Amino acid sequence: MMTSIVSEKPQKSRDIRFDILKAIGLLLIILAHTDPPQNIDLIRQFDVPMMVIASGTLFYYSSRNKNVDLWDYLRKRIPRLLAPVWLFLTFFFASAYITDFLTKKPYHFSSQELLFGFLLLDGINYVWIIRVFLLIAIVAPFLLKLYRFLGNETRFAAVILAIYIFHQVIAIPLLYNWEIPYNWTMWRSKFYMYLIPYSCLFGLGMTLIEMNKKLMSLILSGSAIGFLFYSALDYSKAGSNLFNFWYSHKNEYKFPPSIIFILYGILMSMILYLLVSWVWNNYREWLENHRGIKETIIFISSSSLWIYLWHIFFLEYWHRVEYKYPVMQNYLVIFISIAFLATATTYLQKVLVSKIIKTNQFGQNNSEMLAILFLK
User: Which of 61, 71, 234, 353 has its C-alpha lying 20 to 30 A from 45's C-alpha?
Assistant: First the structure.
């Protein structure tokens, strides 16, 4: 049953290694929102970069033999991102209003939070990642065309690196030193500063399928050396309190993504990619024989948007309840519960909507709309 919901394509067409990486990234993002201990919270900071890299690989894997038309791609991709998010936010804000009304409490959200939420401008502190993937969706066809034009992964990776160096060394100082109108500062801080770093990570992900060992070693060693260099700079400021320094500055490094954040994301993503590849190469037969595990991984990866959205809902109401037992506030209990509830709800949603499309006249007449809203 789950296989039919996951994808209409044969499962043999997927490289499950990148589904595993994407699923791990999603689960780490959910973990981050459960207030884990400081060390765990620092270690898992590579979650979003790894999801972006894995998404780049899956995009290239599905598009490398296709002629991707820019406008046709955007016409399909942007509604698949925005429509479910706006539908969910409408439900989320409405349910919060009804709950607050029935419990005679002030409404949790201001009008600005409502507006900024729908505009993906951090209104509820969860939607910024949707903005990142929307920006990536806009540039993905250009990256694919650039990759094809350059002819191989080494030249493409070199151009991606040059773009990021230009962004870091020239563009950022210019943008922050020029006097620009106030309305442009939001474009700079909320869009451009995310667009280039995450597009470069997405482009890096596109090269992984065909990346040779030499280039892999170069990227792995380069990101490790770069991360150690910037860590040493931070150590010169913080001394033995380096981890406390990183923890207190984690949002500054992440919003927008700084160079040390990007280097750490690449380093950990490459390490996990090699680890997952080793596991897949050595235990592939076992995974093939346990199809439930494989199908669950593919389901989580291909349903990441709705699982992410539902985790926002369950996390909001988990924190609203006053629990009698302290264990209910333990981060592991919260993480396991929220991850399970979000995944199970997404699964039930897909089962129900798929059944409506197959058996109901309304569903058949509106199958494309229902698929965009609930099945992507």
Answer: 61
Dump the DSSP string for 183-231.
HHHHIIIIIIHHHHHHHHHHHHHHHGGG--HHHHHHHHHHHHHHHHHHH
Q: pLDDT per residue over 194-218, tens digit each?
A: 999 999 999 999 999 889 999 999 9
Given a cut of 70, is residue 28 above it in pLDDT? yes
15 CB-contact burial (10 Å; exposed 0-12 / middle 13-18 / buried 19+): middle
**Beta carbons of 297 and 7 less than 8 angstroms apart:** no
Q: With bands split at pLDDT 50, 70 and 90, how would you rate the model's confidence at 137?
A: very high
pLDDT (tens digit, 9 = 90+) per residue, 276-286? 999 999 988 88
Contact of 255 with 248, CB cutoff 8 Å: no
41, with CB counted inside 10 A (0-12, 13-18, 19+), is middle
* Residue 265: both structure tokens together: 């994301």
Q: Which residues touch 197 (CB under 8 Å, ≥6 apart)?
A: 164, 167, 256, 257, 262
Q: Where are the alpha helices (DSSP H) in the chain?
A: 2-6, 16-32, 38-43, 47-63, 70-102, 111-118, 128-150, 153-166, 172-177, 182-186, 193-207, 213-238, 242-248, 250-254, 259-289, 291-302, 304-320, 331-359, 361-365, 367-370
Contact by Cβ (8 Å): 41, 246: no
Neighbours of 321 (CB within 10 A): 8
Bond preceding residue 256 cis, omega within 30 of 0: yes
Helix (H, G, I), strand (E, B) or coil at 15: coil
Q: What is the DSSP string of 46-92?
A: GHHHHHHHHHHHHHHHHHTTS---HHHHHHHHHHHHHHHHHHHHHHH
pLDDT at 285: 87
- pLDDT one-digit tens code per residue, 279-321: 999 988 888 888 889 899 999 999 999 999 999 999 999 988 8
What would the two tokens of residue 332 be?
């592991």
User: What is the pTM assigned to this prediction?
Assistant: 0.92
φ, ψ for residue 64, nearest 5 deg: -65, -25
CB neighbours of residue 33 within 10 Å: 17
